[in-house]
Amino acid sequence: MSPEPDALICGAGVSGSYLARLLVEGGFRVEVYDGNPLRGHRCAYISFSSLLKPILRRIGLELDDFILCHIRSLHLNGVELEVRNMISIDKPRMIEEIYPGDGVIKKNLRIPEELFRRGGEGTLTVNASSRILGAQRRILPRQFRARASGLEAGEAYLSVKPGYGGYSWAFPLDEEGRRFHIGAGCVNADPQPLIDRLMRSNGIRVEETICSCGRAISVADLSRNPEIMIHRGMVASIGEAAGAVFPMTGEGIIPSLETANWLYESLDRGDYPQSFEAKVQGMLMEYRDAFNLCIGFLKHPRLTWLRGVGRMTERLKGRALLNLTPVAWMRLWLKMLARG
Ligand SMILES: Cc1cc2nc3c(=O)[nH]c(=O)nc-3n(C[C@H](O)[C@H](O)[C@H](O)COP(=O)(O)OP(=O)(O)OC[C@H]3O[C@@H](n4cnc5c(N)ncnc54)[C@H](O)[C@@H]3O)c2cc1C
């Protein structure tokens, strides 16, 4: 009889796979389950090289192997900004290399939510299913991968419409400028008009749609104290299930990997759940201001949109090393004012 595992990981997307790899390399026994033959969600592409590189290096992987395109410039509401850190990545391949699934992951096995709620005994159960247990909001995206024309190679397009509570994008998926990821995300409205607007204003023509996705992104409701289940006894949540998604942009790959690493470190040091919980709570506190701004967009768009867009560009500036010259900054604000 095989010995009991130390951890039972439910969900083999980015966070579950990364945790499984760290635990196995650290000498722990794991069992990994995924309710879907296609592990992880297929649709996220944008990340930031200086942050993702060291996370992958920790497990001996090279980021360069997964980069589809280095993005050189970002057209933010029609204002072109130079970027140095933004990339599109092959997420399915990255997940597969983080923790190869064949014959190891028990696929098509859906773990009942009840197990995450009440917790197992003895063995640690990890909720890496992207299902938040507790108060949450959802960003409703509509997006597709497409062969498209009218866009420049290495250039990305982002359009923010604060009063509408959403934004739209077109990101390149190859260095040649042939394949793009096009979409929009909104908190409480139909994202399609934002996609139409982006296509019109940038002259984008879709020649062939390769695939599409409409899975909602879950964001922890941080309007008060985070009331989501980070851990309960021998159950811990990581990734999107732990609220690891930046509320304004829906960026979740890097934060999800970070939460998996915090859980691993806490188990390895033998101080679970203290250091793990403190780090996840710290992240949620950091996200709180951005979350409340998003709520402000919905309730008082006229009052909050200037500050909100400022926050979003600040975040992009920090992550994407945006070259936001005073002239570009002024042009951006004038555009936003004109549309306000
Ligand atoms: C449409 C879309 C676009 C996005 N774009 C970006 C982007 O460009 N950049 C970025 O940084 N982030 C993006 N994100 C966010 C990011 O992709 C997610 O936050 C991140 O992948 C979450 O990782 P995870 O491991 O927590 O969950 P996931 O990667 O979603 O994996 C969860 C896994 O759990 C499995 N599962 C679910 N329930 C069960 C169950 N009961 N039992 C067993 N298995 C179960 C699922 O099948 C899935 O494989 C996007 C998200 C979406 C939905």
Give an account of the 3D structure.
The chain is of the alpha/beta class and 340 residues long. The chain has two domains: 182 residues, FAD/NAD(P)-binding domain; 121 residues, no CATH class. Helices cover 36% and strands 26% of the residues. The strands form three sheets. Strands 5, 6, 10, 11, 12, 13, 14 and 15 form an eight-stranded mixed β-sheet that branches. The longest helix is centred in the C-terminal third of the chain and has 26 residues. 44% of the residues are buried. The site of flavin-adenine dinucleotide (FAD) has 39 residues, from helix 1, strand 2, strand 3, strand 10 and helix 6.
Which SSEs are present, and which pair or pack?
Layout: E1 7-10, H1 14-25, E2 30-34, E3 46-48, H2 49-57, E4 67-70, E5 73-76, E6 79-82, E7 86-89, H3 91-98, E8 106-107, H4 113-118, E9 124-127, E10 136-149, E11 155-161, E12 166-172, E13 179-186, H5 192-202, E14 205-213, E15 217-220, E16 231-232, E17 235-237, H6 253-269, H7 274-299, H8 301-320, H9 326-339
Parallel strand pairs: 1-2, 1-9, 2-8, 5-11, 9-17
Antiparallel strand pairs: 3-7, 4-7, 5-6, 10-13, 10-14, 10-15, 11-12, 12-13, 16-17
The chain binds flavin-adenine dinucleotide (FAD).
